[in-house]
Amino acid sequence: MRCAEDTNTLLNLTERDRIFEFLAGLNANYDHIRVQILEKKRLPSLNEVFSTVRGEESRRTVMLDDQHTEGSAVKVIKEETNPDRNMRLDRIKTTGSEGLWCSFCRKPHHTRENCFKLHGRTQVLSRAKRQPQAHMISEGSENGEDDWIC
Known about the structure:
Blueprint: H1 2-24, H2 31-39, H3 46-63, H4 83-95, H5 116-119, H6 121-130
């Protein structure tokens, strides 16, 4: 009967070590959760600790949304008084050409392949009409996995 007690004691010590290792590895953002867990009279199980941290992560995701705009199509443009200028800005926004640069004429919003000065307007426009286009919006990480950390 002594072996069963020793086995339980060893399992409890192993789980306790894993809990401390997990809590020590948390970011500084989770200091208050670490303190809450360690202040309890009885140390919770490893699953309870994981659940507590996961719950805090979910709460932060919902309540403290940082409004990440990396890779998003959010753009703020100051309104101009010239209506022709506004129409050009709208066209640029919808075509997604704000990051393009021509190495031939050294002007923005197009590349060397679509440069009117190099190829002529009619040739570039006729090429653009022949090529079918598809627009795609993606969300999340590139490999399809969630990028959260325990």
